[in-house]
Amino acid sequence: MSPPLTPSSSSSSSSSSSSSSTDSTCTERDIEEALIGSWSLLEYFSDPFDGKGPSLHPMGPDARGILTYHPDGCMSVHLMPSPKTGKKSRTALNDGFMYAGKYWVERHEREKNSFIVCHRAEMASLLHLEGRVHKRQVTLSNRNRLVLSFVGFEELNRD
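Above: the chain's sequence. Below: its structure in token form.
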């Protein structure tokens, strides 16, 4: 799923200028600094794995969301379907979700000059999201657009 996001009015202005996931001079720290602030969801969609067919909007075309990265390494994400759906309760992933925890940036193992942001879900509205590291490829084409693309999950060791 690739949710394009834009900085909200509370986005940090101390981020490094014009960071990009394809810039060979970028470091993990450059990407972390560029992410800091709050981002508003523009679109939440999923493309078919085989590349055939239209993009799907699991929460509808008017989904709402906020993603926040704090300089201390904490993050939170809140995604909700459009209020136009008329649903009275939320019980499944497509009904909206939130999670919060720590985040960090890593170089993508398979794609040169690409980065992954890892979200360690320490608490989540849906139990199957909790206790995992959610990995997303980062694309920052400019300071006004962030695209996070699904890479995978990693289970956390729970003692």
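The longest strand covers residues 97-107.
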